[in-house]
Every structure is written in C-alpha cells, then in structure tokens.
Amino acid sequence: MPLALFALMISAFGIGTTEFVVSGLLPEIGRDMSVSLSTAGLLISGYALGVVVGGPIATAAGTKLPRKAMLLILMLLFIAGNLLAAVAPGYGMLMAGRILSAVCHGAFFGIASVVAADLVGSAKRSRAISMVFTGLTVANVVGSPLGTWVGQGYGWRATFVMITAIGLVSLAGVAFLVPRQPQAEGASLRRELAVFGRLQVWLAFGTAAMSIGALFAAYSYVAPLMTEVAGFSPGSLTLLLVLFGVGLVIGNLLGGRYADRAQLPTLYVSIGLLTVVLVAFTMTAHARFPAAITLMLLGGAGFATVPGFMTRAIDKADGAPTLASAAAASGANLGISIGAYLGGLTIDAGLGYTSPVWVGAGMAALALVITAASGALESRDRRRQGAALAPAVPAP
C-alpha cells in the first residue's frame, strides 16, 4: 500500500479521536463551563449535526479544487476547530470549535476515500479505503481512552491541545506524502450533483445509514446494557470498549480485503452477520462472558460493512464520486443519530436496556433489504446490457 495511505490514516485517527473523546470528558467540561451534563452532551449532538450537514456543503464548495488541496484545507479547519475548543472562554465558543471540526470530518472521509481508491489499482480499492477508516477504528481503541486519561489528569483543554498536535502531524503528512491528483476533466458542482439522480447512489446511502445506524443503536447504550443487564462493574467498561474497538479494527480490515474480491457478497455476509449478532446480543447480554464476546463480534460485523458501502457509493457515482462519497460518510452519521434516537425512545418507553439492540437488528435487516434491491437492480441492468450487445440472429 502507498505510504500516502498512512498519512490519511493518521488524519482519520485524529478526527476519530476528537469525535469520540468528548463522551469521557462531559463531567469535567460541564463543571468547568458551569453547564448541566445534558447541555454538555449537546457537544456530541452538535458534532454529529456538523458532520451530516457541513460535510457535503464543504465538499460541494471545493468541487473545483484539487483533492489534495481540499484535504489540506480540511486539516487546517480541523486544527483551527480543536485549537478554538482548547482556548474557548465559554460554552458557545467550545460548541463552535466542535462544529468546525465536524465540518472537516464529513468532507475529509468522503474525499480521502476517493483519493485512497485512486492511489491503488482497481483490485485494491476497498482495502485502500479500509486503511483510511482503520485510523477511525484505532481512535476507539487508543485515541479516545488516551484523550480521556489526559483530560481527567491534566484538564479537558489539554486533550484538545493533544488533538491539535495530532492535526499538525497529519497536515504535514498529507502535504509531503499524498501525491497531487489531477482534477477530473470537466469537474463541476453540477456534474457532482447530477449523480444524485441515480437510484443506485441513493441505495448505497441507504446501506450506509442503516448498517452503521444498526451498530450504534446498540452501542450508544452499551454502558447500561453491560452493567445493568450483563452484570459488569462500571470499572470494567474501559476494557469492554477496547474489546469493541478491536472488533472494529478487525472487521474493517477484513471487510476491505473481501469487498475487493466480491463487493456485493461481502456486503450481504457482513450485514447478515450484523443482523444475527444483534439478535443474539439480546440473549447473550444476560451473561458476562457471552456478552463480552458478542460485543466484539458486533464491532467486527458492523465495521466490515464500511469499505464495501463506501466503495459502492464511489462506483455508482462513477465520473463524479467526491460529493457522493462525502454524502455516504455523512449518511452513516445520520444513521448513527437515527439509531441512537430510536434506541433511546424504546428505553424511555420502559422496554428495557436490550430494546435498542432490537432496534439495531431491525435497521440491519432493512440495510440487507436495501442492499439486495441494489444487487437486483444491478443484475437487471447487466442483463439488459448483455441483450443489447448480443448479435442479432438472422431468420431462417
């Protein structure tokens, strides 16, 4: 794999760390900013909204710029957002820094996926994309726990200073290691927007949103699930989350490897496995060891879908993939918000802490239906194309 992919992976690690680390620092931020815990929690929701809305807008604004230039601009925004958060005198400024970082998130993963796919041959495109997302998964295992430890020991501002430093390293890596890619001939916002008229592009978005939404419908409430239902102590959560993160890394890498060989079958298997694991989790959650193993399998099955649906979004937007790729990344974050919201509704309705897992299973099943519809449409188009190209048989 080209060395440039490691520069993109480090950038993804920094972005993933800034996304996830706030969850472990909400009490400290709330006390320092004199806001309630629920108000501090809006820093997570605000970030997610920034990813969903800001990512495609930023990508559209930079349509005519070379992709490397866009990556550099986005990393500068990332650095500025985290530096702003580190020195924020009040809650409003802190939220502004979070949203600025989130705009970078959505656009970066979309553009970096296209750049990564173009750096390698067609047989390794999904693996290249999985390398980028490996940075995001490792952020769960290393970045977020490290940032939480730094914030609890030296103050939450120190965490954002640390992330700013990672951003500076990432900026240098992109500048020196990522080659300049020529802008696609005839690139324009109109051409990028035109691909949204293709049904297959929307089906790829649906797969992204529902599969990742299924994963996070369950994961968003993993703390009460593992403590109140499985019986783990609160002190065990860190180790359990690391176990989940290991599953993310393994699933992501395997998903990339097999999606290069057979894209649709890999998506069928990974989404089907995700559905089965979620259903099983409603039963294994009542015992510690089975719950822990299922949690790791959940991370693996969930992120095994990512290289496949990102590559599929790029493929189906052939000729103008950048905005579609960014929209797929933002669609996945929209799915996270939907899954977490629906899971919370079931808990509020008194259905118990395993009820969000059932929500996730339903979303995964829907993702499988959407992917199957996309496959059927692709087969139909292939048959029509074959019939059109077949030589006419003369009459006897």
Written overview of the protein:
The protein has 396 residues and is an all-alpha fold. It folds into two domains: 1-180, MFS general substrate transporter like domains (Growth Hormone, Chain: A, Up-down Bundle); 187-385, MFS general substrate transporter like domains (Growth Hormone, Chain: A), CATH 1.20.1250. The protein is 82% helix and 0% strand. The chain has 16 helices and no strands. The longest helix is centred in the last third of the chain and has 35 residues, at 355-389. The radius of gyration is 21 Å and the shape is globular.
Task: Give descriptors for this structure.
396 residues, mainly alpha, Growth Hormone, Chain: A, 2 domains, 16 helices, 0% strand
- Distance from first to last alpha carbon: 57 Å
What is the N-to-C succession of helices and strands?
HHHHHHHHHHHHHHHH
| Oligomeric grouping of the chains | single chain
Main β sheet profile:
none
Number of helices: 16
**Envelope shape:** globular
Describe how the helices and strands are arranged.
Blueprint (H helix, E strand, L loop, with lengths): L3 H17 L5 H8 L3 H25 L5 H21 L3 H29 L5 H30 L1 H22 L11 H6 L4 H21 L2 H8 L7 H25 L1 H22 L3 H16 L2 H11 L4 H28 L6 H35 L7
Helix pairs in contact: 1-5, 1-6, 1-7, 2-3, 3-5, 3-15, 4-5, 4-7, 5-6, 5-15, 6-7, 6-11, 6-14, 9-12, 9-13, 9-14, 9-15, 9-16, 11-12, 11-13, 11-14, 12-13, 12-14, 12-16, 14-15, 15-16
